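Aim 2, interim progress. The first record below pairs a target sequence with its structure tokens.
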Amino acid sequence: MSVRELVVLGTASQVPTRHRNHNGYLLRWDGQGLLFDPGEGTQRQMLRAGVAAHDLNRICVTHFHGDHSLGLAGVIQRINLDRVPHPVTAHYPASGQHFFDRLRYSTAYRETVRLVERPVATDGELERSAAYALEAHRLSHPVEAYGYRLVEPDTRRMLPELLAERGIAGPDVGRLQREGELNGVTLDEVSEMRRGQRFAFVMDTRLCDGVHVLADGADMLVIESTFLDEDVQLATDHGHLTAGQAAAVAVRAGVRHLVLTHFSQRYSDPGEFERQAREAGFTGELTVARDLMRVPVPKRR
């Protein structure tokens, strides 16, 4: 059975707290596992969340600040210790290759798994498979940073009532799908296009074009909201977003489920993030992320 969900491993920003680990997010997408921004402590959080190294197919790092990447060393070594039976692909800003190399080879261990390095140097599509296309777009932060976007291909949905009206059933349905026409009935007459799902992951950034491109039409948008709106100048100065800014992006983009995360340790009431997001006009499904929670991706339209 296919599963599409976000497993939240950590939600703190620069400084972890008693209740928030550094960043870490696993997207389960059917049989694939995409790990985003493994901060310090990610390996232990994976254990607590029931996530195994075997679940990982891709690692996507937005930028090389420690709260988004210091967990790479442990995760990579765990992948090798557990002898994961498939290659694992790593995406990260190409300008940070020296950081990736240091983390990958920070201590001695035996490499048993093929780790495929696919650094990101420009906006656009990184990988494409039958299941999804993975894109990256540049963000605005003091160091080079990219957000990621997963786009499922559109598919065609057959409409049983229209098939029945035209007397098409059994093997003839498959034949119509393959050939596009059967006994004068076209595929368009008895089916409709079904939009593929979209998932976006936006971490440390000011408002910029990349944020809007990534969020556009997302079924789920995971986005940083480090600051509350009253600290908007701090957010801008340090290359971050506020809760209201993140929600306004989601409104403009038509996001279905907004997940706010990456919270500054200066705030003690997570309810304020939800309140400000609602005040900004977001009326869809809204989650203020907590460590170890699981958030289902919205069902297809």
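The second target in this work package is listed in the same format:
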Amino acid sequence: MITEQQYVILSLELNMFFGRIMKEHSLFLEAGFTPANPDFSKVADQYKQQFETILHNAVVLGNGIISPLVASSGEIVTDYTLGSEQKTQYFTGIAINQEITRLEEALYGEANPLITPALIQQVSQLNALVRPMLEGLIGFKTGLLNDVLSCRMFTANYPLLIDHILREAKLYHSHLIALENRQNPEENLKETELFWDQIMMEHALFIRGLLDPTECDLINTANDFAGEYNNLMRAAMTATDMTIDSVTDTTLKKTEKYRDFKEAGTKGINECKIRSIILPLLADHVLRESNHYIRLLRQLS
């Protein structure tokens, strides 16, 4: 069981990280629909706005409450996030609330914050607000994936990407339930590695497929990372209590190198030096997820 202080801190950190991830998933879906499906575009935009509200509330409540480690991890916001949002809004015409990002840039953490009964109540209300929104988004993504796989709809997003973002939404949901039951959602190192290794592998597959065919070196590097994370998944799957620490150490080192690759890619895409069909915000999005995984690996190992 976790304390009330841990409940508040972990809830706010979860909603800050995944609230942004969900709003960006909605934006990526919206950007991928064709003129044949304007209603889907509207629904995706509604979810984007709803999760902007969640994210804003979490940032306002969590400033000075979240841990210094999370505040400085690069999983909430990076040096590239604001510029990536501005470019993505320009390219897509989809409005992005950049004031939230400016608030996030000023975030700080405290090692032992004072948690008041009022804040516990506010966090509980925030979690209760997220649940139905998230369940609705999970349903939307599930229906969309079914439509794409049964050829009832075309979208510029890979079916695997839709499945990928659906799994992330389900993880967010399961973590919320765990917190409401006063359980730590990130206690199992093996399960955490298996989930995020697959996410990292799929990022590499997406990057490989969205780079311009002329970007041969970057395509080969992305392909190598995909293979390496596939191997790490197998290693984590067969790891025992005696060997998991060694696997984690290898995974951490690999993910730090992968983070550097993604950061260079984000910078290159923002500066128009890499040929691709990768939205700048998507590049920053996958960079933040690597930063999140690195922080988890360091904390859990």
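The two ends are 20 Å apart (CA to CA). This observation will shape the mutagenesis plan for the next reporting period.
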